[in-house]
Amino acid sequence: MPRIIQFLHPGLEPVPPSNSNIIPWNCTKAHKRKFxxxxxxxxxxxxEKEACLTFWGEWEPQSCVERLPNLVGNFPKYLNRPFxxxxxxxxxxxxxxxxxxxxxxxxxxxxxxxxxRNLEPNSLILFGSNKAGNFILDTLFVxxxxxxxxxxxxxxxxxxxxxxxxxxxxxxxxICENSCVEINCDLINDCYKHYxxxxxxxxxxxxxxxxxxxxxxxxxxxxxxxxxxxxxxTLPGIxxxxxxxxxxxQGGRNYTTVEIVDTWNKIVKQVEDKGLLLAxxxxxxxMISKEEVINNCKKLNx
Length: 302
Fold this sequence. Notes:
Helix content is 10%, strand content 26%. It is mostly beta strands and 302 residues long. The protein has one domain (4-299). It has a four-stranded mixed beta sheet with strand order 9-8-1-13, with no helix packed on it. A four-stranded antiparallel barrel has the order 3-4-12-14. The protein is globular and about 50 Å long. The model has no long low-confidence stretch (mean pLDDT 91).
């Protein structure tokens, strides 16, 4: 039976080096969350629509940044336009990765919390952080029927050996020498699980639930209209408001399909009540050298 996983991370927003508008690849042990802008799709009146969207998400490689207006609260400080310069050594991997045809989750936390390697279909993973005693959501990941088991010997087969942005941002950092030296990664010869999140187009065969990211339409003429705080999610008995790091729910109770759908709908309502959209897909960041964008961030996208 499916489970509901609260997956907590510090949620810190990275800051560019002084006198630079480029945030380099994250080589620290802690995953970060950026406020990003990207072409993507969102749900409107039961259909997917295309637009440039802002959202909170994980993108550990480089991004070109723009300072945002100062607003009171947990609003973002920087707008990040993601890109990937493969000339820079790989460091921290991006997981979950919401860019591309579907959301993907493949390793984070699975060494310590082995229940994450065997999640049943329609399980919900709520990726987020604890701020001021509240759980704030950045990604809702709905687990598909089958994940793909892999180990160090087979990890490169997960992407059909295509050296695209997902490969460089999420797979290669787990096996490249630089990454392991910098952050002491330890992809041991053990089986992990690679999941592709349920998409909007597949929702009919999954009780009308799908993976999404809270978002807004991007307004380049008025950046304040594109900014938002990550939404607080309250689910008594499911969400822990005291836990700040780690996993909640991986060894806990199982849920019926009715309970899963009901919980998903409650999360959707809380997100939409904040005036936010449900983003379902984002274009992969371009693979380009930082020298090509350092003086013109806006050439990247949107």
